[in-house]
Write a structure and sequence with these properties.
The protein has eight helices and no strands. The protein has 202 residues and is mainly α.
Length: 202
């Protein structure tokens, strides 16, 4: 059972969730864009939210800025969080514009916002759960997308909500966070998406 719980932290790691969200988005709106355009956007997201951040973490470890890739110490979270938030800023400035890519633009605006909050909290020595922030943001994005486009994706919504519980249970099982850190991450993930949801309809 513990192995199953721990698996949730790896399958729904914060680094993968932006890619999951964009694959979900382009799969359902593929009639709006060319195949080449969609592939280019997804690859850009993978590069900026997965490969470059991983490479950055690999560089930090030999420099002894971080002890491990799990970033257990609050102080060691600050630079990686600032870097990832910068990647989100690049995405909303150069990859997705608010006219032709309204939904992805505001999704990453929410990611940028939650990243800033996490950075501020790290300087206040509060260790919010990044896993829970990311998965709750992703789950709310799935729900919002289904309502916005009026598509029947109840099974995917159910799976995404299950994933939230799975990740929270996983983080508790791994003793990575206290319950209040998970709950605050849950709230931040949902609120960050909710703040920018109204712009979808403008």
């Amino acid at each position: 059972m513990k192995t199953f719980l721990d698996l949730g932290s790896y399958i729904f790691h914060p680094l993968w969730l932006s890619t999951y969200a964009m694959c979900f988005y382009f799969y359902h709106v593929n009639f709006m864009f060319t195949y080449e355009n969609m592939i280019a956007k997804i690859l850009s997201v993978i590069l900026l939210t997965v490969f470059i951040p991983i490479f950055f973490l690999i560089l930090l470890k030999p420099l002894r800025i971080i002890d491990s890739f799990h970033l257990k110490k609050i102080k060691q979270r600050r630079l990686p969080l600032l870097f990832y938030t910068t990647m989100s800023a690049i995405i909303i400035n150069y990859i997705f514009d608010p006219v032709h890519y309204k939904v992805p633009f505001y999704f990453f605006s929410a990611v940028f916002f939650s990243g800033l909050v996490c950075v501020i909290l790290s300087f206040l020595n509060y260790k919010i759960s990044l896993h829970t922030t990311a998965i709750s943001s992703f789950s709310y994005f799935i729900i919002s997308f289904s309502l916005y486009y009026q598509i029947d994706k109840l099974w995917i919504i159910s799976l995404s909500v299950f994933a939230v519980g799975w990740v929270m249970s996983s983080r508790l099982s791994m003793k990575s966070h206290k319950l209040h850190e998970l709950v605050s991450g849950l709230i931040l993930g949902v609120v960050s998406q909710l703040i920018f949801l109204k712009f979808w309809f403008i």
